[in-house]
Amino acid sequence: MLVLKFGGTSVGSVENFKKVVGIVKNTVGTKIIVLSAMSGVTNTLQKISNLLVLNNFKEAKQEIELLDKRYNNVIKNLFSSNTILSRAYTLLKNHNNLLLSFIKNGFSEIEEKVIMAQGELVSTNLFQLLMEEMDEDSCLISALDFMKIDKCGDPQMDTIKEKLLKIINKNPKTNNFITQGFICKNEKNEIDNLKRGGSDYTASLIGSVIDAKQIQIWTDIDGMHNNDPRFVDHTFSIDEISFDEAAELAYFGAKILHPQSIIPAKEKNIPVLVKNTFKPEASGTLIHNNTRSIKIRAIAAKDSITAIKIKSYRMLMAYGFLKKIFEVFEKNETAIDMITTSEVAVSLTIDNTKKIDKITEELKGFGNIEIDNDLSIICIAGDLAQNNKGITSAIFNCLKDISIRMISYGGSNYNLSFLVKTSDKIAVLNLLNKGLFKPINKIKNSILV
Ligand code: ASP
Q1: What is the chain's pLDDT, residue by residue, as a tens digit (449 residues)?
Q2: Residue of 11, 41, 42 best suited for mutating to test ligand 1, as the one with most atoms within 8 Å of CB
Q3: Ligand 1 center from residue 75 Cα (angstroms)
Q4: Ligand 1 centroid from CA 320, angstroms
Q5: In this structure, how many other beta carbons lie within 10 angstroms of the beta carbon of residue 335?
Q6: Which pTM does this prediction carry?
Q7: Which atom of ligand 1 is nearest to the CA of 197?
Q8: What angle do CA 410, 415, 420 make, to 5 degrees?
Q9: CA of 195 to the centre of ligand 1 (A)
Q10: CB of 437 sitting under 6 A from ligand 1
């Protein structure tokens, strides 16, 4: 069995919905098709919820009306059969009435989750109607019937497996199961979700419990690129990458995959193929465990980083100092990204500055504190095992004129990261691209170092 996940842009318009049907049709075998909400819809639903929290009913109603208009424009052009069209209208009417029913005092968190789930519920229903109109076999299954999380928000794998397999086995003749990404039920059996961008995670969880042959993530770019195409010319899509390298890149800024989504697939060793809905003929990027070893695979950047330096002579030859520092971050629920130490100072980075004032106050008890804002982490992923001589010099040779604030190397075999001013980020990405990757012909590139 295969899992095919299509993101928001892949189901973002009439034309794209039809492209997805074409891709499903051309994929042989039994599939579970996971869909996101149409692009922008989850943001709109979030906006509606926020307005309802503020009792701003007038604007909430306007947003609901705009969304309804958008959906109506889509279905008008999506379906040609009158019976299907009238079913789609009924669906949208119910959806609209549901959203309007929340215009009242006392909007709760549970109701917010119900609103957030509507984007995926609508897109999957419309897609199923389209498959029906195009005479394609399909069965719509609700993620709310099998996708379950516990009270910490973690997926309950055994329950998911048992419930999903029961549904699949009840429909032995179906080739195309359609379901929602992102949404789930929590331990109280209320509607909940896997957090923003969670549809990739849904696909990976499903792939894991059904032991899928492959998980395909269909998006709007030809797989993962060796560098950020928004800032660098002449990037290229990489044909394969290991789970470890992809995890480093996903965390440090490559937005194609949700970082958590990689874990269930990696644990079961299920290959993940990232493909482009708008260029299905492109080979995409295969994420798997048996990649050819390559020294430098790709580069990504993460912005909005704050560095904190704690300098103290009490650290000299002392033990237990780092523990005390880490405890401050733990107490303030703030994750640390990068860390470097010297005998008398420790520098670390965070990307969540909500509690920075409290953290700084508490750290002052340990020494002098310096804070730097507007920094970016540049992450270089590849097979960077320390015996791969020459890699670090090749990297830093490219950056002779750039001032570097911190360097982290050796934490894993797959990542070297360093910190620069965000104002230098684009220059750094371009210098590395030029220095580390060499075009060998117009289409393909190879790694220089
Ligand atoms: N629709 C949800 C979001 O925008 C989930 C997803 O698309 O992955 O976050």
Answers
A1: 999 999 999 999 999 999 999 999 999 999 999 999 999 999 999 999 999 999 999 999 999 999 999 999 999 999 999 999 999 999 999 999 999 999 998 999 999 999 999 999 999 999 999 999 999 999 999 999 999 999 999 999 999 999 999 999 999 999 999 999 999 999 999 999 999 989 999 999 999 999 999 999 999 888 888 999 889 998 998 999 988 888 888 766 556 676 668 789 999 999 999 999 999 999 999 999 889 888 899 999 999 999 999 998 777 667 888 899 999 999 999 999 999 998 889 999 999 999 999 999 999 988 999 999 999 999 999 888 877 788 899 999 999 999 999 999 988 888 999 999 999 999 999 999 999 987 544 444 445 44
A2: 42
A3: 21
A4: 42
A5: 10
A6: 0.85
A7: 8
A8: 100
A9: 8
A10: no
Q: Which residues contact 95 (CB under 8 A, 6 or more apart)?
A: 68, 71, 118, 121, 122
Point out the ligand 1 atom lying closest to the alpha carbon of residue 43. Answer: 4
Question: Residue with the nearest Cα to atom 5 of ligand 1?
Answer: 197
- Contact at 8 Å (CB) between 205 and 266? no
CB 30 within 8 A of CB 164: no
